[in-house]
Amino acid sequence: MRENLILVLPAVLIAYFQVRVIWRKLPRSQENNVKVYGEYTEKDWFLYNFLHFFAVSLFWVQLVFVVIPISRDQCVICFLLIIGYLLILLGFTISIWALRTLGLGWSGMMEYKIVREQKLCTTGPYRIIRHPIYLAVILEMIGYQLVVSSWLVFVVGIIAYLVFRNHIKNEDKLLEGEYKEVFVRYKRQVGSLFPNLRDKSGL
After folding, report:
1. Looking at the domain assignment, is residue 133 inside a domain?
2. Mean pLDDT along residues 70-86
3. pTM flag (> 0.85)
4. Is residue 47 part of a domain?
5. Distance between CA 13 and CA 16 in Å, rounded?
6. What are residue 37's DSSP bridge partners?
7. CA-wise closest residue to 164 among 120, 124, 130
8. What is the pLDDT of residues 152-172, one digit of tens each?
9. Beta carbons of 138 and 193 less than 8 angstroms apart
10. How many domains does the chain have?
11. Which residues contact 186 (CB under 8 A, 6 or more apart)?
């Protein structure tokens, strides 16, 4: 059983507030106003649903039990706890900033679509990276693994990165088909998950 449950609970509350309160209250575009839908195969949806179930299950199991601990040393655990919460708060902040910038352009985590008259968003965090919300979620997932001091931080981080890389590939294809050269230029100048340190003139 986990002895520092009280120190892990804030991470759970942040996740609950973000998913159940903030995301659910966001304005969504009406279905009859959607211009283009992204498409996933049944295999893709099965994989994503399985990974989502696995992630949520692991989340609750680790709240109660210590799973593959990095260390038993309290100083190390405390250090990881601090780093973990910093990553969670950073991810939470980036997510809120990006969602406020998107407005009605937000379509959900794994669905992607373009509404009528929607312009390519290149302001706010989208001026720095193309997919800040996905980066935010990756940071929060890694942060939680550090908060619970688990070696699974590497497994979770790598899987989350690969899942979102695949999603980004599909989403970028949809955006390029809609915005043509405008998106191609934006993609060349702005990194997907990490800032592009090269010249960004023209944005």
Report:
1. yes
2. 96
3. yes
4. yes
5. 5
6. 113
7. 130
8. 999 999 999 999 998 899 889
9. yes
10. 1
11. 120, 122, 130, 179, 203
Say yes or no to pLDDT of 20 above 90. Answer: no
The torsion region of residue 138 among left (phi > 0), alpha (psi -120 to 50) and beta comes to alpha
8 Å CB contact between 125 and 101: yes
pLDDT tens, position by position, 26-44? 655 555 555 555 667 788 8
Average the pLDDT over 14-33 and give the result: 72
Residue 76 domain boundaries: 38-61+71-189
Q: Which of 26, 18, 19 is nearest to 106 (CA)?
A: 26
Confirm if 84 and 144 have CB atoms less than 8 A apart: yes
- Are 33 and 115 contacting, i.e. CB atoms less than 8 angstroms apart? yes
Residue 49 lies in a domain: yes
Give 102-122 as a DSSP string: HGGG---SS--EEETTPPPP-
Amino acid identity, residue 88? I
The reply to whether 143 falls in a domain is yes
Q: Which residue has the tokens 């593959």?
A: 68
